[in-house]
Amino acid sequence: MTDQHKTRDSLLNNLDKIRTEAGLPPVHAWNPPFCGDMDMVIRRDGSWHYMGSPIGRASMVRLFSTIMRHDDDDCYYLVTPVEKVRIQVEDAPFVATAVDAEGTGQNQVLTFTTNVGDTVRLDSGHPFRVDLDPESAEPSPYILVRDRLEALVHRNIFYQLVEMADIQPMEDKDWYGIWSGGIFYKIAPVASP
Residue 180: which region, alpha, beta or left (left: phi > 0; alpha: psi -120 to 50)? Predict the structure, then answer.
């Protein structure tokens, strides 16, 4: 058995012990020793890969997603009370794959669902942002899911948001954006005539 497999098995054994706790494990309260790098990558499309192969079991991916942490060193870790291993994340650890809208205009409330089953309401605690690629101007929209862990908003969902967009004057220009919970979230500036 390789060291990678031993680390994975150890993580899974420790997860069995905390799985019965209600809600998400308190990964930010744990300070275990760093045990090295694990050959696990979360691709930009939200797929999880272990040692070069996709992890096909959704329940396994969900389980790992509940013990993920994004630390101040800008690295991602899987953390249990007794160990901490670094993993690679190509963009964001989650992908927002659905959005539900209740209400309209400033009274609208948007709720996103991620590829790992998290449901998050767009609000001040879970803000939305759009980064533009400096070369292509391609937008990359994100919503904060929890504790420095974001979801990249899937392109189809982003198109839905653009269709919902309003125009609001802000600072020195008008912006396209979306409302949720009485807060206006910018998508892009309105082009000058």
Answer: beta
Question: What CA–CA distance (Å, rounded) separates 114 from 120?
Answer: 8
Kindly state the tokens that stand for 178: 């979306």
* Per-residue pLDDT reduced to its tens digit, 2-46: 665 565 566 556 555 554 444 789 999 999 999 999 999 999 999
d(CA 83, CA 30): 9
- Strand, coil or helix: what is 190? coil
Calpha distance 32→128 (Å, rounded): 32
State pTM to two decimals. Answer: 0.86
* Token pair for 3: 């060291």
CA gap 48, 54 in Å, rounded: 6
- Extended beta strands in the chain, E state: 34-42, 48-50, 53-54, 68-70, 76-79, 84-89, 94-102, 109-114, 119-121, 128-132, 139-146, 149-153, 166-170, 173-180, 183-189
pLDDT, one tens digit per residue, over 172-193 is 889 999 999 999 999 998 985 5
